[in-house]
Specification:
This protein has three helices and no strands. It has 77 residues and is mainly alpha-helical.
Length: 77
């Protein structure tokens, strides 16, 4: 079969406590998003995409993940 098994797509709910200044900044970011794209999104809807973009743009994290993956493949041999 060409199509690999689909990954787990079950959403994971997490509760996070934010400092008031960060909560305000996230609200400001949501306002900026609305100004930029013309549609209002709730902060809770934006956060998963913001976190994904942050992780995708972190070069050190990517390098560390590649090294860990390579190390685990070497250890499995």
């Amino acid at each position: 079969m060409k199509l690999a098994k689909l990954p787990d797509r079950t959403p994971v709910k997490m509760n996070v406590v934010l400092a008031p200044p960060l909560a305000r900044r996230l609200g400001e970011y949501a306002d900026f998003y609305a100004e930029t794209y013309g549609n209002k999104e709730e902060v809770a809807e934006l956060i998963p995409f913001m976190l994904e973009a942050f992780l995708d743009s972190d070069a050190d994290f990517k390098r560390g993940n590649k090294k860990r993956h390579a190390d685990s493949l070497g250890a499995a041999s």
